[in-house]
Amino acid sequence: MELTLQRKMNNKLNLELAKESYKLATKASIGSYATFAAIIFFFWGLVSTPLLITWVCINVICSASVFFVARQFENRVNLNNANSWLSIYTILVLVSVVPWGFLGPIGFMIEDETYHMLTLFILGGVTAGGIITRAVIFKNYVLTLFSLLTPTLITLLMQGTALAETVLILILIYMVFMLWVAKSYSRNVKHNIQLWLDNEKLLGEVRDSHAEIAKKNLELTHKIEQGKKIESQLIDAKERSERASEAKNQFLANVSHELRTPLNGIMGFTELLQEENLEQKHHQYVSQIGKAAKSLLHIVNDILDITSIESGQISLNEESFSLCTEMEEVVAIMGPVAERKNLALKLCIDKQLHKRLYGDANRLRQIVSNLLSNAIKYTECGYVSLTIKLLNSNGKKVLLRFEVEDTGIGIAEEELSTIFDNFTRVENFETRKTEGAGLGLAIVKSLVEKMDGELDVSSRLSEGSCFSLELPLRVCCKDNFCLQAPRAATVTQQQRQNFHVLVVDDNEINRMLLCAFLTKLGNPYAVASNGYEALAQIRNNHFDVVLMDIQMPDISGMDVANRLRAESSAIPILIATTAHAFPEQHQTILDAGFSDLLTKPVGMEELEKTLTHAYSGGYTEKKRVANTMLI
């Protein structure tokens, strides 16, 4: 029985791996035709025309074969034949990439070194793009990499020039790096799929537990004398249900951590590249990478937010704030997005509003940002406006009405009743023009209810929509301990050079990124790759701030903090850099002795503000309260 279950789990794993492998095969085949067209355009007349046409025809036939088999896969794959389809995919990989490999020798037939570089750029792009489509199964990417680059290596080796040897060495280094990336990607994909399958199994146990509870409740009605026995069974089923729910939350936390860690590198280095003097085309490429990473991060944050809301773990962090300032900042952030679509973005705030209010400013920004983002997303021409009105005031409390109005596509009347449900979108999934997981409005509604407000919508198809929010807030006055926001501190470059930072992270990419940021900011720094190195460095050297990862091998960041505080009260300011995103995890980190935390992905502006706050003594008076915002 156990062997059968294991075989079934393996079949499910193979099925998901096959789906992941074939998922982009069709689009990749179609996209390759554009690449062939570009190669013909650049190489035409520079190499033998029959040779070029023959090479292109062979690749077209191979791509068409991949396209055909991928379409067959969608209709014929099942749990029992998934392993066979994986073997077929390996054959397809070999068939489709071997002809590609001859692009190197063909390109090096041209005596112009510019075309040599163009050939290497194309091959590099194909191998890098192959990470997503081929590296699900690591051996497939190995076949791809060696089939693509081996003919080029042989060509360079035969040339025998110093330049050719240098390029050959660089290609070999690139191959080693790409194999490492592919291995990590393959391992992460398998790990995430396995976690998903385990989660499905746990969810099945939850459903079974619920069914068992219902059955026992029925028996309890008819057999009072067995009450104690049934009660024990119910308690046992409840415990299993709680364990399953805890496992689901742990699964989401693990997925968040595994996604945020690579996103930290992608977004951070993209930010650094955008500051370099790049060609316009390359700057556009880097900009698109940044936008894609931010889109993925937004989806991850939405999923974590809705999970926290559904589990009742969401909390409000109330503080004094200026409504005008907060809303002006939100509109300023949304302004460039609206400007790119030639939309007018309007802000109108009732002049009778009090200067400072008391509530959760971060959550209010999140609500308004989501509503404005949706309005801009679904509006192609016209305007988007944010209007804030004072409905009622008794001196201590105010009732405000926020209205976000647009001239966009509108919402059909039959869809208004479901617009605030999870994963609901205005557009049809197959023909949609915009991105998103369909969680924004669901999060908005939940947060509004958490803040004792009411949310409503009115809309007419093709004319626009108006989302209205009525929200009660307290007025900030002397007797309810509202404080003015402190003025931002400034630090000179000379002061930064005397402010020493220790970077502690077991991930090389994260260390490189933080060091690059610190170099830009002008702070001297040292690095440690684990907790023991960090302890040794802090004991033997002077540091003003320690940027410490939490999840590390051997000893965690929180263990390091506990040891330091046990040894001495005079320790550096500890700032956590963590991929943990749940509010309760943040509070646990702060309770362990950290003065503040930076949630990955970490941006240079956020790091600069934190270091400036540390230098100005902002962490000496009291410890920060964990910020429950995920966005």
Describe the protein's topology.
Blueprint: H1 2-23, H2 25-43, H3 49-76, H4 82-101, H5 103-107, H6 113-134, H7 138-159, H8 162-222, H9 227-274, H10 280-310, E1 319-321, H11 323-340, E2 344-349, E3 357-359, H12 361-377, E4 383-393, E5 397-406, H13 440-450, E6 454-460, E7 464-475, H14 493-497, E8 501-504, H15 508-521, E9 525-528, H16 531-540, E10 545-549, H17 557-567, E11 573-578, H18 583-591, E12 596-599, H19 604-615
Parallel strand pairs: 2-4, 8-9, 8-10, 10-11, 11-12
Antiparallel strand pairs: 1-3, 3-7, 4-5, 5-7, 6-7
Helix pairs in contact: 1-4, 1-8, 2-3, 3-4, 4-7, 6-7, 6-8, 7-8, 8-9, 9-10, 9-15, 10-13, 11-12, 12-13, 16-17
Describe this structure in words.
The chain contains 19 helices and 12 strands. With 631 residues, it is of the alpha/beta class. The strands form 2 sheets. Strands 1, 2, 3, 4, 5, 6 and 7 form a 7-stranded mixed β-sheet that branches. Strands 9-8-10-11-12 form a 5-stranded parallel β-sheet, with helices on both faces. The longest helix has 61 residues, at 162-222.
Largest sheet report:
7 strands, mixed
Structural class computed from helices and strand pairing: alpha/beta
- Please give the alpha-carbon distance between the first and last residues: 46 Å
Q: Beta-strand level of the residues, as a percent range?
A: 5-15%
The overall pLDDT average reads: 78
Low-confidence stretches: 427-434, 483-487, 621-631
Shape: globular
Percent of residues in helical segments?
55-70%
Rg computed from alpha carbons, rounded to a whole number of angstroms: 29 Å
The tally of helices reads: 19
